[in-house]
Amino acid sequence: MWPSRAHSHDLAAMFGYLGTTGLDVDVAALRRAHPEVGRRTFADWAAAQDWPALLAAAPRRR
Fold first, then answer.
1. Do residues 41 and 51 lie in contact, with contact meaning Cβ atoms separated by under 8 Å?
2. One pLDDT digit (tens) per residue for the chain, 62 residues
3. Distance between CA atoms of residues 22 and 12, nearest Å
4. Whether 11 contacts 4, CB under 8 Å
5. Which run of H or E residues covers position 59?
6. Measured between alpha carbons, how far is 62 from 60 in angstroms, rounded to an integer?
Protein backbone atom coordinates (compact mmCIF):
# COMPACT_ATOMS: atom_id res chain seq x y z
CA MET A 1 0.00 0.00 0.00
CA TRP A 2 1.24 3.50 -0.85
CA PRO A 3 1.94 5.58 2.27
CA SER A 4 -0.16 8.39 0.76
CA ARG A 5 -3.22 6.08 0.64
CA ALA A 6 -3.29 5.98 4.45
CA HIS A 7 -3.61 9.79 4.40
CA SER A 8 -5.93 10.29 1.42
CA HIS A 9 -7.34 8.11 -1.32
CA ASP A 10 -7.37 11.12 -3.68
CA LEU A 11 -3.73 11.89 -2.93
CA ALA A 12 -2.78 8.27 -3.59
CA ALA A 13 -4.73 8.35 -6.87
CA MET A 14 -2.92 11.52 -7.96
CA PHE A 15 0.52 10.07 -7.20
CA GLY A 16 -0.48 6.82 -8.89
CA TYR A 17 -1.50 8.69 -12.04
CA LEU A 18 1.63 10.83 -12.10
CA GLY A 19 3.82 7.79 -11.45
CA THR A 20 2.33 5.72 -14.27
CA THR A 21 0.79 8.02 -16.87
CA GLY A 22 2.73 11.16 -16.07
CA LEU A 23 2.03 14.73 -16.97
CA ASP A 24 3.21 16.46 -20.12
CA VAL A 25 2.59 20.12 -20.80
CA ASP A 26 3.50 21.88 -24.04
CA VAL A 27 4.32 25.27 -22.53
CA ALA A 28 5.24 26.85 -25.89
CA ALA A 29 1.86 25.83 -27.36
CA LEU A 30 0.02 27.22 -24.34
CA ARG A 31 1.84 30.54 -24.71
CA ARG A 32 0.96 30.68 -28.41
CA ALA A 33 -2.68 29.81 -27.75
CA HIS A 34 -3.08 32.29 -24.88
CA PRO A 35 -0.67 35.20 -25.35
CA GLU A 36 -2.88 37.42 -23.18
CA VAL A 37 -1.93 35.45 -20.07
CA GLY A 38 1.15 36.87 -18.42
CA ARG A 39 3.72 34.26 -17.59
CA ARG A 40 7.12 34.26 -16.03
CA THR A 41 9.66 31.65 -15.12
CA PHE A 42 9.90 30.18 -11.66
CA ALA A 43 13.30 31.84 -11.30
CA ASP A 44 11.79 35.25 -12.13
CA TRP A 45 8.94 34.67 -9.68
CA ALA A 46 11.33 33.54 -6.92
CA ALA A 47 13.61 36.55 -7.46
CA ALA A 48 10.64 38.91 -7.01
CA GLN A 49 9.67 37.51 -3.59
CA ASP A 50 10.51 39.18 -0.29
CA TRP A 51 12.10 36.04 1.17
CA PRO A 52 13.21 37.52 4.52
CA ALA A 53 9.62 38.65 5.23
CA LEU A 54 8.12 35.37 4.06
CA LEU A 55 10.53 33.29 6.11
CA ALA A 56 10.00 35.45 9.20
CA ALA A 57 6.23 34.94 8.92
CA ALA A 58 6.51 31.15 8.46
CA PRO A 59 5.61 29.02 11.47
CA ARG A 60 8.61 27.47 13.18
CA ARG A 61 9.04 23.71 12.92
CA ARG A 62 9.32 21.87 16.19
1. no
2. 556 567 788 888 888 899 998 888 898 899 899 999 888 889 999 999 999 999 998 887 77
3. 14
4. yes
5. none
6. 6
